[in-house]
Design goal:
Rossmann fold; 43% helix; 391 residues; alpha/beta; Arc Repressor Mutant, subunit A; single chain; globular; five-stranded parallel beta sheet; six-stranded mixed beta sheet
Amino acid sequence: MIKRQLYPRLLEHLDQFPAVALLGPRQAGKTTLAEMLALQRPSCVYLDLESPGDRHKLLDPESYLARLEDKLVILDEVQRLPELFQPLRGLIDGGRRRGLSHGRFLLLGSASGDLLRQSGESLAGRIAYLELPPLQATETGAGERDRLWVRGGFPSSFLAANDKQSLLWRQNLISTYLERDIPSYGTRIPAETLRRFWTMLAHNQGGMLNLSQLGRSLMVDTKTVGRYLDLLVDLLLVRRLAPWHSNIGKRLAKSPKVYIRDSGLVHALLGIDGFDGLLGHPVVGNSWEGFVIENLLNAAPFNTLSGYYRSSNGAEIDLLLDVPGHGLWAIEIKRAASAKPRRGFYSACEDLQPGRRLLVYPGDDRYPIGDGVEAIGLRLLVEWLQTSGGQ
């Protein structure tokens, strides 16, 4: 079992809040993490809300859950039962009056928008949120970066016996989303249309969002394309990286950049079956960029602001992080081991004057390369962000 770095934070949140929501895409490891917790707390009760038997137990949730107030109740796929949130509020408030102030409920969900909206309306001030992404660079072995990049971070994909089995698992995950999961949310989108859309995003990994162009390719209007994108974002499968806005008197890009969050899904959608195939594919550079960005954003301290910068005169920064207490970091991402930042990176740094100028490259060291820029390996930068926001 791979040790997940989120586990200590999960324990801390359960010791502070009556309810904790653990968000993440399907098969990212939420249930495994909950099972690990149950081993340490034998009094846990686990309910899978996709199971008819467990859903039947909650026909009268107040009566059933009131008998379990001395236990941690784990509710998996809780967004399937939105009517449960109102009773949870009453149970939590009643428990607080009896001194039960924390560690009552752990809610697992794979659709962030639904869960945040449903729980926020009923459990405001009673719930904390954590996101469990697929495996990250510091959760696998030091020499496993390329395998993680090619296969992605879903544990079953990363740990598969070979690349062929890994690809087959990811292709089946995509089909499961399209044919079972998405229709179960009540969303009527033809599976083949959504597959085409998802594949277009893979081909355009890291590109600026152009709803009109995507709509023409799919022969639908821009509102429909926006709805498709919102759905994939809500399922924690796609990330919109917002443009950075600064009052510097220059024309700046206004559209977000769009990334499929797991690099393994990018490669599965494009039929890339291994490391050699990836290196020869046109998506290789943008795939590496998305892989790096996802790792850095998942490692960044709470309340870190992020975005990309692009001006009309060619100034560009792949990723900007405003790290609380540590100022603005400008990050250039390059696949080549001996790469140098582009001229546009230096121009953008002149515009924004970031406190740190970093180039992430596919190596394991950290060294200055001149003009105030420091080259750093991905794993080192992730660890740096994780430890006190870069101290």
